[in-house]
Q: What sequence folds into this?
């Protein structure tokens, strides 16, 4: 038992953190929102310099961990790039993404010409090309719909990998949101003292931090499960996704709340993180759809733990 | 026991709904958009409401109001908020600036300010919060210095900064809390009525996820104000604020928009209802319960008001439930629209109202006093042995 990421992964994440900070950190997302060209001009070269093009998370456990850590680093600054998808490339170098059954909708759809997409139940998918225009909304500035071009749905395990990497990205966002909130409440003085002095503030911070710690462990466990069990880890991946969505809601709420009115303002990083993480939380499916899919997956495949749950053995008895 | 608001309230509700649907299309999301036509539409609607005797329904007859009952006022609040507040920026003037003027204003101030508010012709903004004075409002620092006579008889010069001032860029007048003399905390605070086109006032919009106009910074640099600008006693501003907040007791009827959106989205999703995930069906049902409880706690506050004054704790309890309801319903609606959650404006679910609601809800537990402050009020009352 060793729940710690390998050194190589930690080192890559540190290098990425520095490179993203040099681009302005969360400011990069603000600049990309004003000028979408920033993504290609600034983010793509930095990722290339970090060796993303040669990193295949399916190669070995260390590469898998490195990809996860890299996604976490990206989430910390709401990196305006579909990194999780871009790390799961098909043989022709197309990024792989899990999409809703209704429409092949992804974040940063316009940034990459060809995509390989599929639904998480493994029943539909194929090759798709980017549409010209995104939604351009406050909560999904870069979200766009792809056009399905041809057959060839991605292997389920690739879609699961994509979802695990998305969860690691969300983890980075949440971890950063807690850090920003700690910083804010330590500096913000009301009633003659930093608001961090109030237990009502401390308790909220503590709950948020524990929630992120829990998500981090689950994200690590799921990475390991995916490596061990491949497409048999579908329930585990859905469990991670469900927990990431629920943790995001609670942690981001706390982060915004403890910032007061500043928590909804563009000038404050926490507010930008909240907006930019929305595509990851809503696509390919939100919390209730994910919970339903998880329940079905557990019933079908079981759920590893200290005792038996669902799966063939239990299913036969029903 | 009787939870029916009565035939009059039902008729009033129907009348308001008819007026709203006749004057706004379904895509109306309030006055605070990038499209100036939305503000203009609300201004026109206010004039119409004024002509129909509905704008100042809540005001006492002595002040030209309709003398409507608290339950009439409740219906107006619910219907207006449910339909994206078609009175636009007016509601602050109507809800508490007018009543505060009635309570504290001189005859001249009443004569000057009440008629334009009653006619829906003027927008007021509220200059309380400052960069260093949020939850701790009594620490505000904006100062008013007398010019000439120390009593202020020759007028004032006001300097300082306000923040989070809603629709400051649209407002003609500001009700401003500033410090006079050497008093500490609550003591020196004085209310001023200041035209927003006074020299020395600068408004800077704050970009936020709520959308345009909601939040602004307002800078006061040696802004001149006459002696007639003071509302109430010098140093008596805190009681004006208390009265103002008392008129905001029940707060915004957020639960009404929550319920309207659950209804409207429910209708939009009806053809595919059975395809929605089972946990969503359950979440939807819980949301309806939460909305009902929030409404009932708001009604409890109105009832207390009707039967002799509202203890802070009753109003705060309602506010806590209502603002939490706003945020959980926002999540349920977003979950229900699934991959369409991030779409906005006319082509989005319920004409963009679901997305708009989600963004706006993020500030629900902060605006007009944070949920933590409300919780402290409830807890202190409990510890004093008062019932909640
Ligand atoms: C949409 C919106 C519209 C607004 N419109 C106006 C307006 O028109 N005019 C105006 O004057 N103001 C307006 N405000 C400002 C509003 O009143 C303040 O935001 C609010 O009072 C909180 O102050 P703050 O933002 O400075 O947060 P802070 O007071 O800095 O609070 C930050 C966090 O610390 C918590 N906290 C503070 N003190 C304590 C304590 N003792 N114990 C536990 N927790 C504590 C708070 O609850 C919050 O979670 C508006 C705000 C919003 C969001």
A:
């Amino acid at each position: 038992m060793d729940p710690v990421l390998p050194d190589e992964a930690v080192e890559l994440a540190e290098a990425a953190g520095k490179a993203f900070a040099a681009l302005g950190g969360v400011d990069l997302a603000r600049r990309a929102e004003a000028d979408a060209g920033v993504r290609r001009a600034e983010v793509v070269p930095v990722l290339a310099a970090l060796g993303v093009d040669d990193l295949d998370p399916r190669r070995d456990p260390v590469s898998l961990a490195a990809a996860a850590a890299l996604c976490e680093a990206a989430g910390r600054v709401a990196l305006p790039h579909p990194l999780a998808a871009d790390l799961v490339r098909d043989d022709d170098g197309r990024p792989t993404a899990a999409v809703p059954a209704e429409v092949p909708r992804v974040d940063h759809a316009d940034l990459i010409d060809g995509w390989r997409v599929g639904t998480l139940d493994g029943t539909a998918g194929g090759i798709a090309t980017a549409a010209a225009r995104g939604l351009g909304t406050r909560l999904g500035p870069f979200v766009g719909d792809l056009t399905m071009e041809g057959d060839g749905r991605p292997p389920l395990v690739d879609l699961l990998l994509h979802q695990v990497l998305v969860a690691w990205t969300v983890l980075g966002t949440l971890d950063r949101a807690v850090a920003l909130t700690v910083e804010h409440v330590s500096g913000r003085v009301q009633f003659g003292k930093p608001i961090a002095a109030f237990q009502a503030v401390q308790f909220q911070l503590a709950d948020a931090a524990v929630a992120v710690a829990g998500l981090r462990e689950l994200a690590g466990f799921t990475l390991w499960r995916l490596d061990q069990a491949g497409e048999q880890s579908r329930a585990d991946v859905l469990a991670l996704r469900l927990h990431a969505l629920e943790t995001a809601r609670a942690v981001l709420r706390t982060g915004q709340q403890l910032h007061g009115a500043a928590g909804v303002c563009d000038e404050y990083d926490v507010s930008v993180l909240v907006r930019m993480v929305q595509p990851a939380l809503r696509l390919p499916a939100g919390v209730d759809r994910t919970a339903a899919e998880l329940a079905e997956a557990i019933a079908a495949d079981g759920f590893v733990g200290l005792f038996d749950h669902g799966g063939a053995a239990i299913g036969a008895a029903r | 026991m009787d939870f029916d608001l009565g035939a009059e309230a039902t008729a009033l509700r129907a009348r308001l709904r008819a007026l709203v649907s006749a004057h706004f299309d379904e895509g109306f999301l309030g006055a605070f958009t990038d499209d100036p036509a939305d503000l203009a539409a609300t201004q026109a609607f206010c004039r119409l409401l004024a002509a129909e005797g509905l704008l100042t329904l809540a005001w006492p007859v002595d002040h030209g109001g309709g003398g409507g009952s608290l339950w009439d006022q409740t219906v107006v609040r619910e219907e207006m908020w449910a339909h994206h507040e078609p009175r636009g920026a007016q509601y602050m003037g109507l809800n508490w600036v007018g009543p505060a003027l009635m309570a504290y204003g001189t005859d001249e101030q009443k004569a000057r300010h009440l008629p334009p508010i009653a006619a829906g012709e003027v927008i007021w903004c509220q200059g309380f919060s400052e960069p260093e004075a949020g939850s701790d409002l009594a620490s505000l620092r904006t100062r008013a210095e007398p010019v000439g006579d120390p009593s202020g008889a020759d007028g004032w010069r006001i300097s300082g900064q306000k923040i989070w001032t809603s629709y400051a860029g649209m407002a003609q007048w500001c009700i401003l809390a500033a410090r006079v003399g050497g008093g500490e905390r609550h003591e020196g605070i004085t209310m001023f009525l200041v035209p927003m086109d006074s020299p020395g006032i600068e408004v800077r919009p704050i970009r936020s996820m709520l959308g345009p106009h909601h939040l602004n910074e307002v800078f006061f640099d040696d802004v001149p104000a006459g002696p007639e600008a003071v509302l109430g006693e010098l140093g008596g501003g805190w009681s004006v604020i208390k009265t103002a907040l008392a008129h905001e007791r029940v707060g915004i009827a957020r639960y009404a928009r929550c319920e309207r959106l659950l209804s409207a989205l429910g209708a939009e999703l009806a053809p595919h209802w059975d395809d929605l995930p089972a946990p969503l069906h359950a979440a939807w049902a819980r949301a309806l319960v939460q909305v009902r409880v929030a409404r009932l706690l708001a009604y409890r506050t109105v009832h207390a008001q009707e039967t002799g004054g509202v203890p802070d704790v009753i109003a705060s309890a309602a506010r806590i439930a209502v603002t939490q309801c706003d945020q959980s319903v926002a999540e349920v609606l977003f979950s229900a629209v699934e991959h369409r959650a991030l779409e906005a404006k006319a082509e989005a679910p319920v004409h963009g109202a679901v997305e708009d609601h989600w963004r706006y809800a993020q500030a629900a537990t902060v605006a007009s006093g944070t949920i933590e402050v409300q919780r402290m009020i409830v807890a202190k009352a409990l510890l004093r042995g008062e019932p909640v």
